[in-house]
Amino acid sequence: MKGGFYGLRGKQTSLILLALVCTTILIWAWEKTPLLTTLLPPQTRMQQLYPGTALESSWKVKNISNSPKDKEVVNDQEEQAFSILDPLAPPESSPGIWNSDSNMINTITPSDEKGVTVNVPKEESRDNRKPEEKRSLENAEDMALVVAAPISSMNKSSALEGKGYKNLTSAGNQACNYAIGKWVEDDKLPLYSGLECKQWLSPMWACRLTQRTDFAYEKFRWQPKNCKMKKFTSSNFLRRMQDKTLAFIGDSLGRQQFQSLMCMITGGKKRPDVVSVGGKYGLIKARGSLRPDGWAYRFPDTNTTILYYWSASLCDLEPLNITNPSTYYAMHLDRPARFLHRFLHKFDVLVLNTGHHWNRGKLTANRWVMHVGGVPNTDPKIAEIGGAKNLTIHSIVKWVDSQLPKHPGLKAFYRTISPRHFFNGDWNTGGSCDNTTPLSDGKEVSSDDSLDPVAVSAVKGTKVKILDITASSQLRDESHISRYSIKAKSRVQDCLHWCLPGIPDMWNEILFAQL
């Protein structure tokens, strides 16, 4: 009887152990086999991918490490009047009128809050990831990857700004956020000489041609925190862009990025084989004009075209009376520039930017009259410069996004605003940027919140990618033209544009990494 009892218990124990082994194998297979997870109902699968409670949708601007509170981060005031007769300078309707406006978008000032790390599953990549308004913060440390793009900050002064946008870029087994990282010294820089790149570089931005004697700012490279950017080389870039066209459309900071890229590709050397193809895009000097509206050059060996078109606001500007040279222009806040509309199908990579031309003085000087829906604007909220700018950025990005299905090979980027560094005044009131010591206010960006929440809000929910350069550029106040601007006026410094070689080179390295 006793033997039978122990024999029966032994059989039961074996069955229990066998069941446990089978259950363990089944659970392991369930986790490792994506096909099995498709058997779950949709809501169950979503809970499996994103466990935990919902993420708060409202975010505050986080601080750049070692950056003081009292320093200006972003000021959407006018691009400054450093007008020089430059053969590559963009056209200006009425130079010299650069009054600030009380309706300007508020300056964004970093707070003292620490950044929040949000993680995402390994299965998601930059190309198939969809932005979400909510995300779990619970058990974040147990998940695999750090989110790879700035999370939006809510600017409470604007009703058009939205929630966060996360832009993933795969880098091995970790995600790379190109906006988070640090500046590191690199004796191999710069990638070209400001003295030699005369074919592409405007003399007013080549600080080697001025009286400036310190060039330590040329020797720093941006290193993202979670990955290594592939080194930019001319051959790698041209091979990647073979039979393709890259277009920059924006203000003079966009033109700096264009000239920087031309110098980077050519190594600053003269290239008689590079062909000007601006005529194919209508970029020709009109009668009575000092310069064309842009430039386009083709590298024949790889059939690669690099193009720049000057559109400071990105809006469609329509003359109200074409027979009157002094006519006013309808500034269609909800329409893209006609050039963009006309030639988008020819582009493979598009980089848009705007920001520093949005003030009342510039609109008045250029005789731009705000229009929405094809008629003069009557909404007082949109009439404010901040509202007009936000509407335009959101409208243009949304329009580009709507065109992407028609052009599946097109990669579109919106570049965040380039920071200005006027201290103790503005451009016309004695403001200066005399610092020549690199990284005097810190070298690292640790927050995952972008300092340009308008841009982040605009690209959220679209396939337009963000090229976030604001926080990293904010740390480099020593790299501006400053008082060394050619033919600079007394007490006027250029603390908006950058010396080249310089910071825009970094923008192009990040762009290259995302191609």
Features:
515 residues; alpha/beta; 4-stranded mixed β-sheet; 20 strands
Walk me through the structure.
The protein is α/β, with parallel strands linked by helices. It is built from twelve helices and 20 strands. The longest helix is centred in the first third of the chain and has 31 residues, at 2-32. A hairpin with a 2-residue loop joins β14 and β15 (375-376). The strands form six sheets. The chain has a seven-stranded mixed beta sheet with strand order 8-9-10-7-13-16-18, sandwiched between helices. The chain has a four-stranded mixed beta sheet with strand order 11-12-14-15.
Q: Major β-sheet, in short? A: 7 strands, mixed
Number of helices: 12
Q: Structural class of the secondary structure composition?
A: alpha/beta
Return residue spans where pLDDT drops below 50 for at least 5 consecutive residues. Answer: 31-173
Q: Indicate the proportion of strand residues.
A: 15-25%
Q: What is the element layout, followed by pairings?
A:
Layout: H1 2-32, H2 34-37, H3 42-49, E1 119-120, E2 145-146, E3 170-171, E4 174-175, E5 181-185, E6 220-224, H4 234-240, E7 245-250, H5 252-266, E8 275-276, E9 294-299, E10 304-310, E11 315-319, E12 329-336, H6 338-343, E13 349-352, H7 360-365, E14 368-372, E15 375-376, H8 380-383, H9 385-403, E16 411-415, E17 444-445, H10 453-459, E18 465-467, H11 470-474, E19 480-482, E20 494-498, H12 503-514
Parallel strand pairs: 7-10, 7-13, 12-14, 13-16, 16-18
Antiparallel strand pairs: 1-2, 3-4, 5-6, 5-17, 8-9, 9-10, 11-12, 14-15, 19-20
